[in-house]
Amino acid sequence: MTEDRYKLSFTTGALLLREAGVAAPIYFECRDWLEVRRRLDDENLLQARTVSSARRLGREVIQRLSELTDPEIELFIESTAVERGHLMWVAACRRYRLVGEFAEEVVRERFLLLAPTLLPGDFDSFVRSKAVWHDELAEIAESTHRRLRSNVLLMLREAGLLSEAGQIVPTVLSGRVSEVLVESDLRDMRFFPTQDVSAAKEVV
What we know:
By secondary structure, the chain is mostly helical. It has 11 helices and no strands.
């Protein structure tokens, strides 16, 4: 079995768009994630019902936002709702390799093969195939597996990549999102159901 274990803590929230909208401007003011975390916790800026929930959400949103570059975070602050969804999807895929591989190997692959429907069973099959090489997947409880599956599908819907009916939605990134992503890592286009990079670079 590989020692490169998957992180599986993406059961907290989905894309965390609201939380990122609170945390990103604070980071852009101070450029210090520890200070962002302190303010989120001390001032209960995420308005969670319990202290433990607030801390968990704060930790998770900072871990995801810290996967974005400063230009990507700056764009997130001034972006549209659609652009924010795309940027936070990239952040989740970078943070969680399992999510990124599912995006590339299942979602984008099905889109390219003109099989536009994504079912919960597709995630189950994907995890089973990875579990051959990853004990951490083979050993998770069924309840944890369901939460992982539910959250991945919810992330896809919140990012605008999957319809409520389970249809994969072809992605056309805005010109400025394409620009910052290509500047960071052109390979990140693989996280989206697009034909190729040129298609992703069209302006919406």
